[in-house]
Amino acid sequence: MALNKHRESFLYTKMTELDLIENIDFAKGNGLVTTIAQDAATGEVLMVAYMNAESFQRTLQTKEAVYWSRSRQCLWHKGDQSGNIQKVKSIYLDCDGDAILLKIEQVGNAACHTGKRSCFYRQIDDTGIRDVGAQVFDPKEVYTK
Predict the structure, then answer these.
(1) 39 part of a folded domain
(2) pLDDT per residue over 61-114, tens digit each?
């Protein structure tokens, strides 16, 4: 009974942003943790990205997904250009503290920069790789430099 009481107090303790960040092992991945975006309503895995401590903190503050772009080496607020933002409904941390699961509402219906609903639109089977994804928008029309 005492163990349950301790466990419940941990589960329901209000934590500051700093407390939450300290529970994530950013050091293991050289400052980054793998982050999965999953549709909160359907369970569909939409994408995998990376977060650092600052992007995680901004995600907590805005309730919208903010990632770290490894290619651009900067923060990336998902949907800034495309309008396809991710509203965060809940956040889960794995047992090792080195991976995050965001359950999100995908606004605009496309998570992938290719204009597909999900980044996981290529299915591997006995015949090779097939595109099974729904095209939501044309990236040439959305991303202009």
Answers:
(1) yes
(2) 999 999 999 999 999 999 999 999 999 999 999 999 999 999 999 999 999 999
Distance CA 133, CA 114 (A): 10
CA-based R_g, the chain, Å:
17
Q: Which helix (H) or strand (E) holds 50?
A: strand 45-51
Tokens for 26?
């950013």
Number of domains in the chain: 1
Tokens 């939409």 belong to which residue?
Answer: 46
Q: What's the CA gap between 70 and 83, in Å, rounded?
A: 21
Cβ within 8 Å of residue 130, ≥6 positions away: 122, 123
Residues 6+ apart with CB under 8 A from 139: 113, 114, 115
DSSP state letter for 83 = S
* CATH number of the domain encompassing residue 111: 3.10.20.810
